[in-house]
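[Meeting: bench + compute handoff]

Bench side (C.D.) handed over the final construct sequence. Compute side (W.E.) agreed to return the predicted structure before the next meeting so the bench team could plan truncations. Sequence as handed over:
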Amino acid sequence: SDDRYRMVELACEGEDKLFPNPIELDRTGQSYTVDTLEELRRTLPPTTELYYIIGADTFYQLRNWKKYDRVLELASFITVPRAGYNIEEMRANFMLMCNYEQMHIQLVDTVVSDISSTNIRRRVAQGLPVQDMISSQVWDYIQKKNLYTHAAPSFEKVQADIQMRLKPRRYAHTLGVVKAAEKLAEQYGCSLAEARWAGLLHDCAKEEEKKGPEELHA
């Protein structure tokens, strides 16, 4: 978290209207958007307008956020289309959704560069260039701190490892959960990759429960 905050500081250098705020890092326990908005509303002048910038993919998941109704009361939304989204179709869907939810939302009419932190981390791990995606100061920091250089194991590699750890019946159940998670992700517009990982790992330690501390440590 400290490294990520420092990179945000570096990215904001020279931008007089952008600055980082550490309130989510200073907060203990799990942090939710509604908590951040409530704190900002308490500390900023009453007339301050709060705008929350999100990608179009995130907008369709808002109903799953904690205290969703309160979030809509605390902030207006600016939604940015991503590559592959039809802006006209989005505008029609947003109008229906906004009228139903009584939301305050602005839709940016331009598809911005498809840059994501996930893609940047992946490219760094693979040794691919990212200098056109981030500032030179952030790139220097990543190199100095040796961040993201260790690529995560592939899904297939972890799946093979879990197969060795679990009994055949539980492993078959795990594969079934992976397929169910994929279908739910498609149905609700969630990340397919994250859903597959969640299904694969949900029972990964079940066979360890009967072992004692010494065995687990070994």
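W.E. noted at the follow-up: The first strand starts at residue 51 and ends at 55. C.D. will use this when planning the next construct.
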